Fold each of these.
Amino acid sequence: MRTPSPSQTQDEHSRASLELLYHISRELASALDLHEVLERILQLSVESVGGISGSIIVLDNHGNPVDSAMIHSGQVYNQTTDRLMDTIDKGLAGWVLQSREPVLIRDTSIDERWTKRPDDAPDRTGAKSAVSAPLLARQNLVGVITLVHPSPYTFNESHLELVQAIADVAGIAVLNARLYTESQNRARVMAALAESSLAITAALGAKDILQRVLEQVHQALQVEAVSLALITADKTELVIKAATGPVADEVIGLRLKMGEGIAGWVAREGKGAITPDTKKEPQFNQKVDRRTGFETRAIACAPIRSKGETIGVLEAINPVNGTFDPDALLLLNGIGSLAGSVLEQDQLLASLQAAKQSFQELFEDSIDPIVITDWEGNIVDVNRPATFAARRTKKELLGMTIHDLHEIDFEKVGGPQFSNLSKHEMAYYESALRPTPDTNIPIEVYVRQIILDEKKHLQWILRDISERKRLDTLRDDLISMIYHDLRSPLSNVLYSMDILASMLADESEKYKTLIDVAVRSAERIQRLTSSLLDIKRLEAGHSVLNRAPIEVVDIFVDAVDAIHPLAESKKQKVHTILPTGLPTLNVDGDMIRRVIINLLENAVKYTPVGCNITLGVAELEGGLEFWVEDDGPGIEPEQRDAIFNKYARLQKGGIGIGLGLAFCRLAVEGHGGRIWVESEVGKGSRFTFVLPVDETETAGEAIPL
Ligand code: ADP
């Protein structure tokens, strides 16, 4: 294109203008890169209007310069905003922006709107005349274009018009390109943040996290140094925890007071800030630079936030290309809040790991073998005692199932699906551990659901009860021995007493009483030995064999007679409720008699002097209900089931060995019946048992015995 000289005719000007505008609009229609747009506008304008140099300044929505370009002798320079600040602040560009009017300066030496530079002196080649116009797009001021010429009076009104026409076309193109650049920057920030988030969350320990944060800032902002400081627990200081750059090692560990310097200010205010020139910033504190010898020229600083609170700051120092991008703070803020949430997660993770560690210690230190399985029963963890008990290594056990170790009581756990355990219940049963095919270790099993790594698991405690079982067997053996050794001599004693009593003359009443006492005592021992034998038999699963028809009244008479002297010695009254017309029982009469005597003896034994005891019977549909009631001390609720177990005794060092009620339960259940106790502590107890009968008859009235 030919460069028109200012002396050409008006027609030529108009043609040139149209040609130029056509070029500009065609060229700019598709250009989106802001620098490219600025460069083309400048080149085309200088070529068409004339002049040796020119500039374009681009403004953001708030009227602040965000980009610029200059052309001089055909050469285009970008990022010149710093150099153009003078003209924006107090020169021609500023004037045009303010007035939104184009300006023609025929002679720069006599126009005060022109800021004079040394280069503009008459003997130098600087600007002697200038034209400048605002770039407007849809009423928005988006920039200013200025062209200058080294000779005064070069430009005239038509040049001014041409520049304004160019500015009008260029305004839209610049706005589009600026918006595009902004959206590109935003996308870049988003991408950098997404990348940082991935890199930071992939880090494991806090130290690692801090290092990753610094690397991300370094990469995203292209700066000489980065540092990260955290606020101390008492919130009075900031401690630099991590740093990169030439003096990184020296700054780590340095402390800054809250509010001191730029970092201290950001930490206190919780707001990010960019300091383009530290020399012009009174808040800047030289303490750290003096110590390290490093020169901090520009700082971008953002808070690190966690749960809405500032916990530290991130500082990016000295951008490599001189100034921070406008989006630097946005990016730094983003990385700061990412770092905050990751540090927070890390803290949670640390406490979770501590909890896990203490669980692991408890697990390992337990004296009981513990096995953890999944819901299918596959073993996923075992403690050391479990490896000893199972006589296998942990590795071997991890390939096995809980079924391989012992037989599960499915009734207790709710079938193979362990349905009882999913309701947070604990199941208990006895079983045997089979570490080898020929070993059986008796165990009691406590199993319940636990949550491990957010998944449901089962925890099996397999407690070795060999020692307890050994003692039980010893006790059983001892009891059998006593029984066998006592039975025949006792029968002899009773037989001899009987003969002795019949041989005594009627007048020997006092001897008869003595013999009676001896007989009763011997009978008690006999009842005890018989009950011991029954316990053994019934426990072994034998059924009641000696069934014979017997009237309830006979059992009652014998039972009351047996305990009568004992009750009398404690001044206790024994009442009976015995309706007439009861059906005949078909039972082992001796056994049921001993059950009732046992209940009556307990009532006598465990109630104080003067208490009342009632023995009663009532007919039910299909059975008879017997009960022994007292107004003694009663039994605590949690003991009411346990007292029917063997060797269960509530009063330590008292009378009895805790077998009486165990016998009663075995005997009643052996007859297809049921026994239980109801009690109110301090008021008394009522032991009831029900025996089934085949035929029922109408119950009569209570008769006194
Ligand atoms: P023993 O009488 O030999 O201790 P039992 O099996 O007959 O054994 O009884 C078990 C426990 O139940 C007793 O030790 C006692 O503590 C409690 N017990 C039984 N009967 C009564 C009762 N009528 N009142 C209060 N406690 C009782």
Note: Residues 56 and 346 are 50 Å apart (CA to CA).
Amino acid sequence: MKVLGIETSCDETAAAVVSDGREVLSNVVNSQVEFHKKFSGVVPEIACRKHIETITCVLDEALKKAHCDFSSIDRIAVTNRPGLIGALLIGLSFAKSIAYARGIPLVPVSHIEAHAYSACLTHMSLSGPYISLVVSGGHTSLYLVKDFKSFDLLGKTIDDAVGEAYDKVAKVLGMSYPGGPEIDRLVRSYKGKAVSFPRTYLEKDSLDFSFSGIKTAVLYKVHPPANKTSWEKEKVLSEQDILSVAKGFQESIVDVLVRKSIAACQRHDCRKLAIGGGVARNSRLREKLLEECSKRNIETFYPDRAYCTDNAAMIAGLGYYQPPIGTEAMMTLDATPTI
Ligand code: KG4
Ligand code: ZN
């Protein structure tokens, strides 16, 4: 079965064709990052305009690369939740129009569940039950994935997402957007000391996350309140200072993600941990998860880099396993900004 995936939940316009849920025939992503860079974050109005400008070309290219036309597409999977509402509505309306005009069944897919599924595009035989850690710019969640129809949410961030924290901290440190890859790259080649920052674990046994505290701690370290007396008072931070703050921030974040992921595996007696979302590209997170998980006999599964950040292959892949909706339901199907 060939599924066409369409994804426009944030700042990537994407279309892909995936066969039988696993084999990626094409995966086209048009990133808008250059247009959002100068604002240090995604501007919804710009995102919507760019989706409208590019969605037709992105779809054409995805079909062409997969050597398909609409007659060989068995199903359309589209992200309808969560995300920027205007951006979601563009992809959803586009997908509905094609589905209706061509009589192709439509499947609405959750963007976050698709990130939780994404490692299956790389690890062809990966199946549930497994624990999935989703770490993206907009979400941080732990799921128990059973059969790709039900995703049990075990924990989520109560404030900032981990990618969001990376991007905001990078901005405070004078780096460009998106800051996650920049912090990763700079810290990787830095062998010096790290500033010690707190770890937020919340209540005992909680699988929820909170990253607003570490973000504020970094902000105060760099721009201390007036009554502080230390090197922090100096206006210009040395490169060494910036790197030690960035390293300390990353160590704090990674420790929390690793500890909670392992706790989720142990609580559900699960020996498989899949990681998804843009921050799954982070080298320190990968290193530490591998180290700690292998000590406990837990196997880790990562998507290829192309399937970590937003893409439509993960939407098409998961859409293969989920039930399509009828024409009547399709007419009233809406987009939802939250999970
Ligand atoms: O999954 P994604 O493409 O978009 C959302 O669904 O939000 O994730 C984007 C996020 C950004 O915040 C970016 O800074 C972060 O992923 N990111 C990274 C790395 N690569 C991307 N964060 C840390 N280390 C990286 N190597
Ligand atoms: Zn995403």
Note: The chain is about 40% helix and 20% strand.
Amino acid sequence: MKPVRLALLGCGTVGSEVVRLLHEQADDLTARVGAPIEIAGIAVRRLARDRGSLPVDPALFTTDALGLVKRDDVDVVVEVVGGIEPARTWLVEALRAGKSVVTANKALLAEDGGALHDAATEGGADLYYEAAVAGAIPLLRPLRESLHGDKITRVTGIVNGTTNYILSSMDASGASFTEALEEATALGYAEADPTADVASAKAMGCTIKLLCIASRVSGPSGDSISVRVHPAMIPRTHPLASVGDAFNAVFVEAEAAGQLMFYGRGAGGAPTASAVLGDIVAVGRNRLAGVRSASESVYADLPVRPMGEVVTRYHISLDVADRAGVLAAVAGVFAKHDVSIATVRQSGRGDDAILVIVTHGAPDAALAATVRELQALDIVRSIASVLRVEGGA
Ligand code: NDP
Ligand code: HSE
């Protein structure tokens, strides 16, 4: 049986776990792929680095990644180095030469994924990157394969473990509350006084999460996709509200399947390597069968909707003067921009009055214009916070 030969680029947190799993699962992988998987070479930056007891021949290490990629005995390139360059050059070279690529490099895919897809098409090669999206969580394959008979309408994810950890600790307000808050403030995630938002979210039966959202929007001129990343309040009853610690989760809504949630570890050497191994098996099988995976769906051709046109709901906290007519003036600004108010709540009195307003859905540009105009009002001392509200009626 002719083996499938890998060039492994990078042998750090993820790469070393890829090596370990390839060794430990060798028999199973051979059975699944239909041929043994062999490492042809491993490119690293520092040959002298102590790599512990990695189950691999030290003679495989090289600092010449490009030379390794170009070798004739390499079928598949696995890139776990990260960064834009030189990773892009290596991967474009591999794909154009017809070598399949498995990568965990989210930065490169976000920056120039199109160039990689073009090179894959040009070379007739596979480009797989399950590990680059929510770490260990199988997401791309379920979306691309299991759900390809369905129409996906919305994907909402918690894909930043660090931020989720902070927000979860803040929400839980246990012993780590102050620590999480200080850390969040130092990192620039939190408002100067974020306690008000957290308390307000609780009062509304919500919790705050950093969400990435891609949704399909139908309009008179056809369908488009809205894509955004921002903190948002979500109801505590929403499945994403229960995602705590550093976990990742992705909530998928499809027309026929309904609501699905994928949950798991979004980072870490072994979890991420698990996703890389899954891709290695998939491209290995494809190579033996002489096929490549299906190209992207028609979703890829849908235009991205400008953020200003995306319909969202806002939760706005205003520090206001507490006297007659203030609410009327504030409400007038919302009315002027055709933004409908869902609820209004006041806390405090006199110099400490805070108005908390939650809107119905309105185009983001109208909401932003409303906030700008409120800021200019004499009666508004300051805008304490503006948060979007997601995941409810
Ligand atoms: P590390 O920093 O731990 O490892 C990077 C590896 O790349 C090291 O082995 C390093 O060599 C090697 N390297 C760096 N520059 C070069 C170069 N110019 N030529 C050859 N080799 C080079 O990174 P991670 O393993 O954490 O991450 C790798 C990728 O996986 C990134 O794209 C990251 O975004 C992605 N990822 C990581 C996750 C995680 O939890 N760690 C989760 C999901 C994705 P040396 O060993 O000699 O220093
Ligand atoms: N998805 C990851 C996280 C990013 O949980 O933060 C790891 O690079």
Note: The chain has a mean pLDDT of 91.
Amino acid sequence: MKEKYLKFNYNNVLPFVNQNDLKAIQKEVTNARKTLDNKDGEGNDFIGWIDLLDQMDKDFLNDIQNTAKKIRKQSQVLVVIGIGGSYLGAKAAIEYMKPYFQKRKSLEVIFAGQNLSSTYLNELITYLKNKSFSINVISKSGTTTEPAIAFRALKQLLEEKYSKEEVKDRIVATTDASKGALRTLVDKEGYKSYVVPDDIGGRFSVLTPVGLLPIAVAGINIKQMIRGAKASKRAYKLKDIYKNDVHMYVALRHLLYRKGFSLELLVNNEPKLNYFSEWWKQLFGESEGKDEVGLFVSSASFTTDLHSLGQFIQDGKKVLFETMIEVEEPLKDLTIENDPLNLDELNYLENKSVDYVNKQALKGTMLAHLDGGTPNMLLTIPKIDAYSFGYLVYFFELAVGVSGYVLGVNPFDQPGVESYKKNMFALLEKPGFERLTEDLKKRI
Ligand code: PA5
């Protein structure tokens, strides 16, 4: 039998779940999957990410790659402006694959518009002053405040540095085909633009131009990434949960949730996955946290966080379980050499590799946490590359779609995100919010 690309070991969850419950939940998972496949559940107008992979043609990917090539040629820095789903996927892919320490001459991708820190924006402007740069501004709605503020400031910097024609040549926008302030601006100024498909929400958009362009600019093989996602799609067709790890993952996280483990921690032991966790947190947090239900999702990186959060995970209140991602083959390894003096008392590790130590640490941690009453499960990917990134993306997108339906929510909307915006606009006295402004003033 062909070996699975992604291995899933859930032995350390089984002591916490009852076999009858596992049997019973199969039906719920299967029904949820059918709802997703049949496109007849809530939010079914936002599941374009499922068919997207089959519709992607070579010309589209070549066009993205050509734009990326042009940006690489003309700039030392690409500033990607966006927030939430309009930045996390690209940031996750780039952090996953770029070297930890930037090579001197390579193009740098910097993100902006993902916060409202005046210091961040101010320091970025100073940093860019003597550098050639391009901008990829990304906003599906085209109206989001954070990226709009960053774009205005950085466009002005471009205008100080370059002629009108050159400015136009250095801006690429990714937004809705017809709606939103950004679309109006793009059409008026004649910038090159890519379209965010109507039926794909921000957190599912990493495999659209939203993620693909910045990822390609960073020199990552986007075709390989798509191949990984397609393989993942083929691997997790509707099947019995024992033959479908996405379904098993969904089933186990729900059984744990129902037993009071209402917090899921995504854990890595390779910091290149730290932003993958941020992407994952948005995917699950926005999809499931509504109607007063849902798991709270968080993340950790081991062994770093074993020296901080580890104490709680081991001994604290039994509210969380861990989903761990391990990389089988590290990108690079290092052997621990003999030291004749052995003053650090490390010679017992002579000729062992650092990755071997890392793996034993994870194995030991999983058992310790299990003994402490914290369930944990392990996903193993063969290595860090564009293919495994695409594979994991689709694995979790599919999982959250099915999981949301098991939970009984619409996994594809995010109504809660609007509340802070309304108050912020009122406090900023945005036209149209006068009534709320008066109400809020009384409460402050
Ligand atoms: O998942 C989502 O829909 C959100 O997180 C959005 O991606 C985020 O709010 C940014 O929105 P926009 O792309 O419209 O600027």
Note: The mean pLDDT is 96.
